[in-house]
């Protein structure tokens, strides 16, 4: 594995630092290279490449907003033996402590970033020679993401939708209900879901929802800090309702 990693990174030096980690999904190890220290996640499951590519795309999207710190993604690599590696910037992180308030502020900045781009675009469209084409980060007016992302191994289909209700019902709740039906055949859950679908639009009446770039799997295990402030990682991003993160937090703490 290390020979393949050395070749893919184009480095003569590849020295384990002793920093290792990981969770219930992937394992991780830090290495010193010619170009600095990197952190390498490894996974041998068949779904690993899809999972890592979604994570890389998510990190790239969050990084471009310049609102909150994330590890800079470098490369996804397939290695002999069937494993897949995800190489990213190594960060000296510790548990979130001093920077909790700053985390809240920066998450708000992240969630407002796309809306503010839209407001800026409207102003610039009235100026000759300016507009979306000259903006480094493009305004997104739909709900979804340009690739599949994963919460754990579970894929999230992020096909673009014009409204939040359709995206939320069709691509977030419906897959969960399909799994319930497949695994347990719960007829009552299916019947209740059929009733709820009819009522979901009424919950968002007269509410303007501007797509917000979300971490997508935010909980205490995916948040840390370094000397500069908070760090978020392991994202499964998409453009959605900015308050969806509150649902994730409520589910995690119950």
UniProtKB/TrEMBL annotation:
Entry's Gene Ontology cellular component terms: cytosol
Protein keywords: ATP-binding, Kinase, Nucleotide-binding, Transferase
Reaction(s) this enzyme catalyzes, per UniProt: N(6)-(D-psicosyl)-L-lysyl-[protein] + ATP = N(6)-(3-O-phospho-D-psicosyl)-L-lysyl-[protein] + ADP + H(+); N(6)-D-ribulosyl-L-lysyl-[protein] + ATP = N(6)-(3-O-phospho-D-ribulosyl)-L-lysyl-[protein] + ADP + H(+)
GO function term, MF aspect, one: ATP binding
Domain of life: Eukaryota
Protein family membership: Belongs to the fructosamine kinase family.
Protein name: protein-ribulosamine 3-kinase
Organism name: Falco tinnunculus (Common kestrel)
Lineage: Eukaryota, Metazoa, Chordata, Craniata, Vertebrata
